[in-house]
Amino acid sequence: MATNLHKFLLTASLALVVLFNNGNAFANSAPAADEPFNPGKMIQDHIADAPDWHLFDIDGHSYSIPLPVILYSSQKGLDVFSSSKFEHGHATYKGYKLEGHHIVAVDASGAADHSAHFYNVSITKNVASMMLSAVLLLVLLLTIANSYKKRQGLAPTGAQSFFEPIILYIRDDVAKPMIGPQYATFMPYLLTIFFFIWFNNLLGLMPSGANVSGNITFTMFLALATFIITTFKANKSYWAHILWTPGVPLPLRIIILPLEIVGMFTKPFSLMIRLFANITAGHIIVLSFIGLIFIFKTVFMSAFGIPFALFISVLELFVAILQAYVFTLLTALYFGSAVAEHEHHDDHAQGHEAAH
To answer: Is 187 exposed, middle or buried (0-12, 13-18, 19+ CB in 10 A)?
Structure first.
């Protein structure tokens, strides 16, 4: 009886999280009485970045956490103010206004001036969420590190007992097999990106959470960091295989060279797209199922849409850690190829051909 009650409470809690988390998107994009429901706008409002952190809507009033807006232009200089000055897109301030989720300059008449150039380095919702996840990671992992120092030789407890198997798995089943003897050099980076991606994915599933991993800029930065480390840590053997593949006839080397160079850039590109597409797709699928309720406006569609949205939301909990693992695994694979010592030489290949 108690077990069934626990299952029911868990299911009900997850359903409430799904509805609360995605209901804000509908409130943000709720059309006027004479306008049809626009599912595309609703989904875009939910997954896009914004200059403030929207929480919920009650009786037509939007409640958000204002964030710092930091703008610079050669004409106006530096402008720093709160995003609340825009009044959720209903007001202009210091020659700027919100157009959708983007800040644009305005002319004297108040119309958007897209020809005006300025730099926007504001603390947006995604940036604030990344800062929050970074603080959580620092507090949690530093606490675990201190626990190791104080409890040397003792069995792990609390958070340490939960995260230790994960850390050991990344070390023993990802870093060591993929990188080899030099694995310890890359462990700090591998653990950082794994937990950083995982935590951001989980925060994105929370009510009013930010879709950080569904932002192409975020995934591009992580992929670029992997590319830079791979490039600067690569040994001579790696560059020899990239620029002048040993054991291959000269005509084939000329053909392979541009392919190898292109391959250097397609690897981080695939990292960027894979994480971005998988996380974004999960959010879109959940919102699409719930959106069907508002499109068809039938009880049957509610009975269909909510369970499927709940199922995909639970699946996203698994996808959150899976995508962090895949990104870390592929990063370790690229590091391993960059530091591996190859034994194939031209004279070895020529001797092999002579023997035949």
So the answer is: middle
Q: Count the Cβ atoms, other than its own, within 10 Å of residue 83.
A: 24
Domains in the chain, number: 2
pLDDT tens, residue order, the chain (356 aa): 445 544 444 444 444 444 445 544 444 444 544 567 777 777 777 788 889 888 877 776 778 889 999 999 888 889 999 998 988 788 898 889 988 788 988 887 878 888 888 899 999 999 999 999 999 999 998 988 888 888 777 787 778 888 989 999 999 999 999 998 999 999 999 999 999 999 999 998 888 888 899 899 999 999 999 999 999 998 888 888 887 777 777 777 788 888 888 888 999 999 999 999 999 988 888 888 888 888 887 778 778 888 888 888 888 989 999 999 999 999 999 999 899 876 554 444 444 444 34
In a domain, 246, yes or no: yes
Whole-number Å distance between alpha carbons of 204 and 190 = 21
**Is 189 found in the same domain as 168?**
yes
- Domain of 289, in residue numbers: 125-347
Say if pTM beats, i.e. exceeds, 0.90.
no
Tell me whether residue 22 is in a domain: no
- C-beta separation of 112 from 99 below 8 A: yes
Residues 260 and 162 in one domain: yes
- Neighbouring CB atoms inside 10 A of 272's CB total 22
